[in-house]
Amino acid sequence: MTNILDLKQQLLQILSSFGIITPEAFLAGVFVVFIIADLVVTKQSSKLVVSQVSTSNFTIAGIIVLLVNLYQVIDQFSTINDTFLFDKMLFIDAKAIFFKALISLSGILMLLHIHINKYQFPNEFYAIAIAMIIALQLMTMSVHLLMIYLVIEMVSLLSYVLTTINKDKVGAEGGIKYLIFGATSSAIMLYGMSLLYGMTGTLSITSPDFSRGLTQVDELATTVAVVMTIAGFLFKLSATPFHIWTPDTYQAAPMPIVAFFSVAPKVATMLVALRFYMAVPNDLRLVTGVIALATITFGNFSALWQNKAKRLLAYSTIAHSGFLLIGLMALSELSVKSLVFYLVTYLFANFAAFYLVDLLAIYLGTKNDFEIVQIKGLGRKNPALGVLLLITLVSLAGLPPTAGFFAKFNIFSALWEAYQTADTQKHILLLLFIFGLFNTAISLFFYLKIPFYLFFKNAETEFDTSLSTTQYILASALCLPLLGFFFKADWLMNLIALL
């Protein structure tokens, strides 16, 4: 029987919950301050010209704010025990804290990218970015279907705005495509959640009534409802069949925002999906396996034909979403550890890839993107930039001596373990294992295309642009973990074991 709290108890519970979500409350306060500061700066400056000084100040302030937020999140490891918040709307544990730290780190890297490469955004961008990080951190703690829906919608709406932040035609087109697919997946997800509520009588996925209710309904009906619900997760992951928006949106949005899109929403979504899969009694291996296989295949084969670097990386992110879905196949201790290891490696590799491609665009004097043939011989002209990009792309391909090798090795090891211990659906596990390895080999052709043009083609044009020391420092800092986690992978695995 459910205990109904009186008003006083409810208020006390809300107040105690607010004390635990200090990092998010801090960011909410900063969001308000940034809105007020934007109004003040806009009033004092020209309406036609964005002040470069004020933009730089907003960026530096944002970096400091997120560093404070990261410290607050890390501090929760030693001060917070597993607990429910706001009448079981949220749940905070070591996994949620770790994933929140990854999201804070993603925000810091995005702002560093903006600051060092001197991007100019409207001042309201920084308030929107802070709001998105709040939503993503709340998503990592969401264990209630209503809360999950609200935070996914909040992230989606803010993503649409960030895509069109430059207010140009290309950005508007990318934002509209993003909006259309987002609205479609949202409607399907909401309908699936309503079916689950009708079947179980609860919206809390941690409630025993949730899994018990699903077992008392026809399995086909519950599977349909569950699959409709995960449509929202697939959209945020850029997974098939909700992946079509990805290349156009990535092409339209500025490079730092694209790098953030490619990592942070996926980090938050994977933890929500992991909790949801553990709460559902249905065997979803066949459905998930088919989706993962289709996502990896579509991403890799589409990337083969790309001539533009940014679109190539966009299709690469789709393929990596498929590998992340493999981590949901077994739900064993090894698969969960492998999934988290993959996410950490993916964070540094993707930020490094987009940042280095941005540096290449600056070097070439192009805006936002370039044809791959334009970089012929650039690696000989600038070996440091070429070597850093080679390390990053080798890691994305999953080759030694980079962390990407162990990331994919662990994922395939977990998949093989699931195949050996499975009593049913063994065929899809074996098929995914074989075709996953095949797709990994296919990916070498497009990942190594860029280094091939960098080092083995003769330059057809002169490269006169020079890069700053800080640009090289950030690029090196992003690539360093890709080598470090190969030689000392046990450090990261030991940390993950504590979650």
What does this structure look like?
It is a single chain. This protein has 499 residues and is an all-alpha fold. It has a domain at 286-499. The protein is built from 23 helices and 2 strands. It is globular and about 70 Å long. The two termini are 32 Å apart.
Which helices and strands appear, and what pairs or packs with what?
Layout: H1 7-20, H2 22-44, H3 52-79, E1 83-85, E2 90-92, H4 94-116, H5 124-141, H6 145-163, H7 169-200, H8 208-215, H9 219-229, H10 231-237, H11 245-252, H12 255-261, H13 264-279, H14 285-304, H15 309-330, H16 333-364, H17 378-381, H18 383-397, H19 403-421, H20 426-447, H21 449-456, H22 469-487, H23 489-497
Antiparallel strand pairs: 1-2
Helix pairs in contact: 2-3, 2-5, 3-4, 4-5, 4-12, 4-13, 4-16, 5-6, 5-13, 6-7, 7-8, 7-9, 7-10, 7-11, 11-15, 12-16, 13-15, 14-15, 14-20, 15-16, 15-19, 15-20, 16-18, 16-19, 16-22, 18-20, 18-21, 18-22, 19-20, 19-22, 22-23
Roughly what fraction of the amino acids lie in strands?
A: under 5%
Shape by Cα distribution: globular
Q: Tally the helices: what do you get?
A: 23
The structure class reads mainly alpha
Low-confidence spans: none
Rg estimate, integer Å:
23 Å
pLDDT average, as an integer? 88
Compute the number of strand runs: 2
What is the terminal-to-terminal distance?
32 Å
Order of helices and strands: HHHEEHHHHHHHHHHHHHHHHHHHH
Helix content: over 70%
Subunit structure: NDH-1 is composed of 14 different subunits. Subunits NuoA, H, J, K, L, M, N constitute the membrane sector of the complex.
InterPro entries: NADH-Q_OxRdtase_suN/2, ND/Mrp_TM
Membrane topology: Multi-pass membrane protein
EC number: 7.1.1.-
